[in-house]
Amino acid sequence: MRTFFSPGSVAVVGASSDPNKVGGMIIRNIINSGYSGKVYPINTKGGTICGLRAETSVDLLDETPELAIMALQSNLVIDEMEKLGRKGVKAVVVITAGFKEEGSEGRELELRLKEVSAKHGIRVVGPNCFGLINTQRNLNSTFSSLFPPRGGISLCSQSGAVGATMLDWSIHTNSGVSKFVSLGNKMDIDEADAIEYFGADGDTKVIGVYSEGITDGKRFMDAVLKADKPVVMLKSGRSTAGSMAASSHTGALSGSDSVYDAVFDRLNIIRVNDLDGMFDALSAIALSKPMMKEGVAVITNAGGLGVMAADACSDNFGVSLAALSPETGDKIRKAIPSVASANNPVDVRGDATNDMIIDALGIVAEDEKVGGAALLSSPLDTTDLKAIAGSICGMKDELKIPITVSFAGGRECESALAILRDHGVPCYSSPDRAVRALSFLRKARAERGNKECVMLPGTSGRSEVLELTERAKNEFRSSLSEEEGKSILSAYGVPVPPESLVTTPRDAVAAAESIGYPVVMKIVSPDIQHKTDVGGVILNVRTETAVREAFESLTVRCRMTVPDAKIDGVSIQKMVSGQEVILSLVRDDQFGPVLAFGLGGIYVEIMGEISRSLIPMSDDEMDRMITSTRAYRMLSGARGKPPADIDSLKDIMRKMMKIAVENPEIYELEINPVMVGKKNEGSWAVDALTTIR
Question: What's the predicted TM-score (pTM) here?
Answer without folding.
Answer: 0.88
